[in-house]
């Protein structure tokens, strides 16, 4: 018998009688309007920053003002970031992203309770981009902030993706005597624009 | 060499009292962060109930879920492997590397590979493995195992880490600034990520409904490794399954809050398909899990999501250190998982507890940890895996507790003994006394007190 069959046979023999799954309905929150405040509070508390803007031209102006664009490599698949950042055509060669300083990416939605933004592969030129870049900017629609993870998974329940990730703040570690250091292996900073 | 038991290891750890206090306080601080975070969620207790019930369902239908997971993962273009034990797991990983002619691999945190001693095995085969989680890299450089499942080098002082980094990564001598050391590790490991063709990761959750796996990190190391490599190998115990995506919500809400008090880990990455032209292999490992599934009293230990909360809160763990458990997984949960792997070798661990129940109180999936510790003691005594002294003590206690008269006499004897002949208790044959001052002796027992006071009240 193959290992697979041996394991499955043992599982079947040893698993207890069927227990029912709990209902999760009670965890869904009624729509709230303080979602922007909550999201901003939580993300700020875990090392990220949030800026509310009226439209995308404001984002461009902010980036031009705060990042030394002339000297760094910036990348964005967003149409109205052209002129600020290069569009990166997926070439299936993630190593070429080694020297990216700034990546500006759209996110599908954000989650108020934990400050996370959801990005699936369709929004990423390369899976490694939000990690390998030194600094990360995400752009989310104000109306796409969900209260909790329950609403988040409800939203993507039928979605098909090869890869997707929740990103909540900059990369960090506290492995050395519990001192928090931002910029472990992923992006050193995270800025979220709410449009 | 005979491995020392928990009590002997703990005695060694306790030689440096200041360090023990520091270790104790650091972990308690993390426990407090967990509390603060949990208290912010009014539905916290219902979430724990739901998590426990989802895992109970998963374990009761694991056969079906495993088949479903495999089917969906295969349809996603993922390769699936099954390993009955640690050796088969290690052979599979080595086989995949050998087939591709790869002799260097980067690895992110996986307690399963610690359980299987994969690093040592691969090194013997001439494969270089670099751990990329900062804490794991530190203990790897120090040639030590992790002492905690979430905080691998929680036992190390920053000065010791500074010395290690000076020796291995060339940081300035005497520099112990966490910022400087982390930056040095970032640069060193970035080079590693960019040059490795194979990356191995653990798995936090696997979804039967979709065939995807979820990996949670704060550092981003699992993603950096996996997205830059041609070959991604993900290793998981068969108990990591959850039925569907909707259930991930419950676990992701609980995991980081229980572990460190964060609302969620920085990255929660969902891998469903390999990158175009690349390979994703998932190794499903039994290694004793089906046996534990069959033990009704200990089955619940398979619900564990490896948050580490039971360790942070445990008074014994905090004051004895992770290494004293001589097992990949330390603390209360390690003490109920280990005897299933090798009963004789780990017979000491279920006794490394005061049964105070703090672990069960914080466990996000509501495992009855301290009850299981107690039940293991019964099993271990029955199977003859404890010392005669311990057996005698347990037997005396069982007889005494089951007889009210004997209990009263025993109590009286103890009170008299403690008062007039403390050396009878405070001797080297009584292991419990070694690190402790015995309590002041009450003049009367509770029942004596109750009798007197009740009489007074009735008068
Ligand atoms: S037993 Fe519970 S508290 Fe301990 S690590 Fe596992 S899930 Fe966390």
Automatic annotation (TrEMBL), chain A:
UniProt xrefs under Gene3D superfamilies: NagB/RpiA/CoA transferase-like
Domain LUD: 88-195
PANTHER family: LACTATE UTILIZATION PROTEIN C
Protein name according to UniProt: L-lactate dehydrogenase complex protein LldG
From TrEMBL, chain B:
4Fe-4S ferredoxin-type domain ranges (all copies): 294-324
Keywords: 4Fe-4S, Electron transport, Iron, Iron-sulfur, Metal-binding, Repeat, Transport
Keyword match ATP-binding: no
UniProt-listed Gene3D superfamilies: Alpha-helical ferredoxin, NagB/RpiA/CoA transferase-like
The keyword Electron transport is annotated on this UniProt entry: yes
Any Gene Ontology biological process: lactate metabolic process
Alphabetized SUPFAM superfamilies for the sequence: alpha-helical ferredoxin (SSF46548), NagB/RpiA/CoA transferase-like (SSF100950)
Name of the protein in its database record: L-lactate dehydrogenase complex protein LldF
């Amino acid at each position: 018998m193959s290992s697979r069959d041996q394991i499955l046979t043992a599982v079947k023999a040893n698993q207890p009688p069927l227990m029912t799954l709990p209902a999760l309905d009670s965890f869904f929150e009624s729509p709230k309007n303080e979602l922007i405040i909550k999201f901003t509070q939580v993300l700020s508390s875990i090392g990220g920053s949030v800026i509310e803007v009226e439209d995308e031209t404001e984002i461009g102006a902010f980036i031009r003002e705060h990042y030394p664009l002339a000297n760094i490599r910036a990348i964005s698949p967003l149409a109205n970031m052209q002129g600020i950042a290069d569009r990166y055509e997926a070439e299936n060669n993630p190593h070429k992203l080694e020297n990216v300083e700034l990546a500006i990416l759209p996110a599908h939605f954000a989650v108020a309770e934990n400050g996370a933004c959801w990005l699936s592969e369709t929004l990423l030129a390369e899976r490694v981009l939000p990690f390998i870049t030194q600094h990360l900017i995400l752009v989310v629609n104000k109306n796409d902030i969900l209260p909790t993870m329950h609403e988040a998974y409800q939203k993507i329940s039928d979605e098909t993706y090869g890869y997707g990730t929740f990103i909540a703040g900059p990369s960090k570690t506290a492995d050395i005597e519990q001192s928090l250091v931002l910029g472990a292996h992923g992006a050193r900073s995270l800025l979220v624009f709410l449009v | 060499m005979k491995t020392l038991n928990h009590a002997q290891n703990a005695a060694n750890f306790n030689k440096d009292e200041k360090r023990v206090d520091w270790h104790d306080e650091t972990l308690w601080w993390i426990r407090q962060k967990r509390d603060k975070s949990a208290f912010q969620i009014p539905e916290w207790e219902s979430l724990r109930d739901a998590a426990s019930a989802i895992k109970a369902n998963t374990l009761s239908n694991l056969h079906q879920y495993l088949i479903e997971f495999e089917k969906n993962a295969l349809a996603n273009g993922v390769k699936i492997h099954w390993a009955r034990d640690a050796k088969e797991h290690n052979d599979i990983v080595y086989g995949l590397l050998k087939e591709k002619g790869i002799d260097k691999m980067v690895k992110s945190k996986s307690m399963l590979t610690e359980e299987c001693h994969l690093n040592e095995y691969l090194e013997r085969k001439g494969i270089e493995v670099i751990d990329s989680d900062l804490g794991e890299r530190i203990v790897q450089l120090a040639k030590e195992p992790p002492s905690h499942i979430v905080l691998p080098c929680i036992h190390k002082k920053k000065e010791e880490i500074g010395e290690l980094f000076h020796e291995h990564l060339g940081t300035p001598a005497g520099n112990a600034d966490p910022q400087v050391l982390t930056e040095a590790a970032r640069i060193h490991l970035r080079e590693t990520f960019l040059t490795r063709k194979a990356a191995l990761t653990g798995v936090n959750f696997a979804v039967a409904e979709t065939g995807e796996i979820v990996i949670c990190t704060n550092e981003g190391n699992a993603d950096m490794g996996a997205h830059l490599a041609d070959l991604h190998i993900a290793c998981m115990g068969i108990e990591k399954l959850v039925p569907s995506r909707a259930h991930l919500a419950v676990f992701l809400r609980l995991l980081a809050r229980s572990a460190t008090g964060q609302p969620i880990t920085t990255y929660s990455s969902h891998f469903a398909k390999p990158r175009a032209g690349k390979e994703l292999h998932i190794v499903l490992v039994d290694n004793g899990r089906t046996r534990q599934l069959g033990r009704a009293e200990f089955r619940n230990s398979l619900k564990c999501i490896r948050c580490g909360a039971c360790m942070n809160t445990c008074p014994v763990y905090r004051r004895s250190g992770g290494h004293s458990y001589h097992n990949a997984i330390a603390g209360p949960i390690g003490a109920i998982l280990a005897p299933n792997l090798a009963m004789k070798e780990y017979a000491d661990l279920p006794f490394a507890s005061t049964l105070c129940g703090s672990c069960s109180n914080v466990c996000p999936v509501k495992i009855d940890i301290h009850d299981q510790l107690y039940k293991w003691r019964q099993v271990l005594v029955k199977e003859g895996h404890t010392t005669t002294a311990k057996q005698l003590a347990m037997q005396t206690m069982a007889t005494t507790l089951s007889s009210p008269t004997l209990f009263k006499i025993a109590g009286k004897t103890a009170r008299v003994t403690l008062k007039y002949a403390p050396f009878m208790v405070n001797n080297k044959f009584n292991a419990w006394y070694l690190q402790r001052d015995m309590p002041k002796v009450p003049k009367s027992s509770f029942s004596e007190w109750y009798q007197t006071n009740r009489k007074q009240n009735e008068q």
